Amino acid sequence: MKSRLLFVEDDDTFRSVLERELRGFGHEVLSCSSAEDALTSLHKERFHLVLLDLRLPGMTGLEMLQLIKKVDAKLPVVFLTGHGALPDAVEAMRAGAYDFLVKPVPLDELELVLQRAIDHRSLLHRNRLFRSLVNREIASDIVGQSPLIRKVRSSIGRIAASEASVLVSGENGTGKELVARAIHTASPRSEAAFVVVNCGSIPAELFESELFGHTRGAFTGALRRHLGLIELAEEGTLFLDELGDLPLPLQPGLLRAVQFGEYRPVGDENTRNADVRFVACTNRNLEDAVDRGEFREDLYHRISTLGISVPPLRDRAEDIPLLAELFLQRHNDKVSDNLRKEFSSGALERLNLLPWTGNVRELENVVIRLVTLVETAVIEASDIDKQARPIRNPFPKGLNVLDLETLERSAVVQALRHHAGNRAAAATELGVAIKTLYNKIRNHRIETSEWK
Known about the structure:
The chain is an alpha/beta fold and 452 residues long. Helices cover 46% and strands 13% of the residues.
C-alpha cells in the first residue's frame, strides 16, 4: 500500500522537482507551499509522514512541528532544509522530529530515511495495539456457553489476528454486527475506527459519494470536500452491513477497493489507497445470489476469504436463560431497587420453549416488554405467555407457493397491515431491525396501498 506524504516547501521549483521524485519512490504526495495550507490539510486528511522545510514564510518549521504534534503526536516529521546547523538539528530532534536532513541530500539517502520513518511509525502502532490485546478477553460481549457459541468465540479469536476480509452470515437478529465488532476489538486495528456502511439503506445515487467521498464541485450541491466512509475507517475496520442488498451496478467499485485497496473519490482524478480491513455481513445466501446473477462472483470470493456463521437462537437454546438474565440486568442497572425485577424458574423454562424466529433481537424485545409492563417484582411464566405472543401465521390461506421471496414479502405486508403501517411495531413483530424492514419494503417494492 502506498504511504501518504505531506511535503511542505516554499520554493516552487524545488517543490515541483522533489515532488516528482517522491512519487517515484512510491508515495502519494500532497505538496503545500505554506505551513497554514499544510495544517489545513492535516486536519482534513490522514498522512503517514511529513517532509518539512525548516524556514517557511509566516511560521518556522519548528513552530509547525509543535502544531503537527497536537494534531497527531505519532506522525513522523522529517526536516529537509538548506539552512542546516547543528543547533537547529538538536532543537528539531528534541521537539520530536524523526530526522533532520540538509540539502542537497542524495535521493537514495532521502528514500531510505523516509521509509524508515514510515516503518518506525507502523512498528510503534502495532506494538501499542498488541500490548493492549495481551490481557483482553476475546469476544466477551458474545454471551452464551453452548457449543455453537463457543465455536463462534473461538473463530473470532483466530480470524481477528488475520488481515483477510471476512463474511459474517446468519439470520436477522442473531448478532452479526456484534460478531463483526468483536473481530475488530480483538484485532490489531482495535484502536482505530469501526465504520459501518449500511449497504441496503444508502440511496444508489449517493453510495459512491458516501463510501469513497467526493471533491468540492464534483456535482451540484458539493460545496466542500466530503470524506468517504472508507477514509474515515483508515487503519481500522470497514463493516459492510447487509452486503447482499448492495445493487449489482455498485459492486465493481467496491470490488476494486476490496481487491486492491484502491478507490477514487467522486470528482477526483487520482486514485487513493485505503489501509482498512473489510468485514461484511449478510442474511442472504450469496452463493445463490451469484447463481441468479444478482451478486458478482469475484466480489463474493474476495469478501469471503474468511467466513463465520452465527447460529440462530433456536439452535442454542441453553443460552436463552443467560441472554434473558443479561437483558434483565441491563434494566435493573438503570432503576432503583424497588423497581428491579427477576425471573422465576418457571418463566425461564417458558422462554426456552418459544421458537424465537426473530432470534436474540426478538428475545431482547420481549424482555423489554416484560420489565416495562409486568407490575410485580417477579416475572412468572404466565407473564411470558401474555407478552411473548408468537407471531401470527403471516401467510394467507391457500398460499401454495414455497418461494421464499414470496413468503417474505407476504409476511412484511401482513405485519404492516396488522400495525396500520407502524414500521417500528411491524419490525418488532417480525423480529428484525427497523432498517432491515425498510430494506425489505424497498427490495420487494411494497406500496403503501397494500397495507392500508
